[in-house]
Design brief:
402 residues; mainly alpha
Amino acid sequence: MKTYLELLRVPGVARIVAAQLTARLPGGTLALGLLLHIEAVFDSYGAAGLVLASMSIGQAVAGPLTSRWMGRWGMRPVLLLTTLVSTGAIVAIALAPLPLWGYMVIALVGGLSFPPVSPAVRTIYPKLVTARQTTPLFSFDAAVQEIIWIFGPVLVTFVGTQVSTVAGVLLSAVFMLGGGLWFLLSPEVGRVRIPRSRRRLGVVLTRPTVLVAVLTGILLIGSCAAIEAGVVATFGEGGAQAGLVLGIWAVSSFAGGLVFGNVPISPWSLARRIAVVTVGAALAMFAGEFWGLTAALVVAGACLAPALAVMSATVSSSVKFSDTAEAYGWVNTGQLMGAAIGSAVAGFLIDAQGASGAFWVAGGLAALAALVAAAFHRSLPDLRGRDATPLPDTEPVPVTPS
């Protein structure tokens, strides 16, 4: 814990972590909020899956592009524009009575304009701390982002089931607008300028480390989204037990992230940590209800945040600073796609087979993620004894006062 306390004492670190966390909460609340809302409107998880798929397509197209724009026009203008447009789309989905195709079109717009907060903050992190503190900061970020991926769904499940599905969707809009403004007005955002990349869009994916992080992120977060949908389906739309089970999962992952924060990262670290998640997801297939699912998700959560920390650290150490925003844009797009796709596929199987179908999806996706990480472990850097700072550019990086 001493390491993390030292990090939080660094000027600006606590503020930027809290601001970006609030701004990124829709990444964890929106998919499940839409799943609950559209299912309530059309009485079909399949229809909800189509709306989520539309949003994921928009995010897939725009994520790397808007991240790259930050190097051309600056972080603040890009973040402001995307935050306003995407928030408007989410409000429209919550309040407007539309046919299914109308919800799909608006979801596509919301995905195309999803704010690139994650690439922005992960580009800023190495400029806030010393090289020695970079890997622990990424680990701390991965731990606290469990509030996004797991506690976020707990919150939206409670609001969506106990208040209304409209309120559940509007919750994402509130976090996106309020957190987005807090983040982009933070002094640290104005202090760091991302240099314009000289490479074509997508060239950063030729870096094996980035590609492995994108692929494993899609599969791993897809597994998490399927688990969330399965838990909600197990206890029903009015079941408060779903939120409790997901909350325990969040605590397990948060604790795992802190425990593994100072463990050196080797080329096999990603595969090993995802393998533990796979074991937990496999146990969930046969777990029964409350206590069985709780035990299975404690196992799955123990290495979830640590696996995400490996992805962030290995990408940071493998690309030039001018390419970090785009690289994280691809990684973040993969994770958001995974969340939407996992929810969508699980939704169709819930309609066909019941809640157990979602856990089979979760176990299969986690197993594939572990296999990808193992098969390409030679492409991942060995960070034992190394820091995770980006490779230097060939020209000075300007830093201007806020």
